[in-house]
Amino acid sequence: MTHSIPFAGLTPARILDALESVGYRCDGALMALNSYENRVWQIGIEDSAPVVAKFYRPGRWSDAQIAEEHAFTAAMVADELPVVTPLVIDGRTLFVHGGFRFSVFPKQGGRAPEFAEPQILEWMGRLMARIHIVGARTPFAQRETLNIQSFGVEPRDWLLANRVIPPQLEPVWRGVAEQALEGVRDCYARAGQVGQLRLHGDCHAGNVLWTRDGPHFVDFDDARMGPAIQDLWMLLSGDAEEMGRQFGHVLAGYETFREFDDRELQLVEALRTLRLIHHSAWLARRWDDPAFPAAFPWFATNRYWEERILELREQVAAMQESPIVPR
Question: Which of 62, 180, 265, 307 makes an SS bond possible with 323, Cβ 3.0 to 4.6 Å?
Fold first, then answer.
């Protein structure tokens, strides 16, 4: 593991200096927004509305990968989609100040959506279809692809190589993780060759802000190539029957604009499993960032890994069942 503190030099003064370096006159008001991967601040601007500055985690994405994300969101805005995209300042969207890369966004208000409501699920389905129409036009050349290797095998191997798991639990976790990955491979085999497109990648309620005009999508930091279902399954919750009911509403909206490949239903529990493995490795890889032990103190406990073992066992069983059926 590395032992550098990624945002150690990002002081309030440096944040304000960064904004002033691209032409803003800050009034000194700073409010940290909820973000662990990057650092995001709402910043007061003299005689104008506040803006949001996002400082990118060093070493995570290359400049070219960030540029692809920005181009993707700009293409969606050009198609009149409610997507929050970085502001263009002197022809650029990515800047460097004091060794930190950052972008500036307009402030977007809103609340978390009620995904259980049928009309909201249909609305989300329509907008996800329109996002996917843009996403399918051209592939990412630089950003990653969500697949078994990148979200399952690699993080599993990293956790074992770095001896993150408590020694007395490691053999059990190793065994159940291998079972889970076999289950994922079986799901992918049943689905066959499904399409790949540019995705939001992390489309949960926290990345959607609801206003009187409907949903606004924020934080495309996890945008990558993958199957369309990745942007849809996180809208669902509850047991299989409830998820089927919810997905029926999502699909009713989605297929207003874009056909959905039903074979991708085989991937819902597989993608959930990959997300669980990937999330454990993400927490471990970020443990040297002081924000992570403060926010996730339970990670460094035996109980955390006991719960992950149980969770993966449940996923092994779920992947052997029939996929959800839209109702």
Answer: 265
Residue 40: inside a domain, yes or no? yes
Active-site positions?
202, 219
Give the 3-state secondary structure percentages of the chain, helix then strand then coil, rounded to 5. Answer: 50, 15, 35
What's the whole-model pTM score? 0.94
Of the candidates 106, 130, 154, which is a domain's last residue? 106
pLDDT tens across the length of the chain (327 residues): 445 778 988 999 999 999 999 999 999 999 999 889 999 999 999 999 999 999 999 999 999 999 999 999 999 999 999 999 999 999 999 999 999 999 999 998 888 888 878 999 999 999 999 999 999 999 999 999 999 999 999 999 999 999 999 999 999 999 999 999 999 999 999 999 999 999 999 988 888 888 888 888 888 999 999 999 999 999 998 888 999 999 999 999 999 999 999 999 999 999 999 999 999 999 999 999 999 999 999 998 999 999 999 999 999 999 999 999 998
Same domain for 135 and 90? no
What's the CATH number where 87 sits? 3.30.200.70
Query: Are the C-beta atoms of 290 and 5 separated by less than 8 Å?
Result: yes
Same domain for 235 and 278, yes or no, is yes
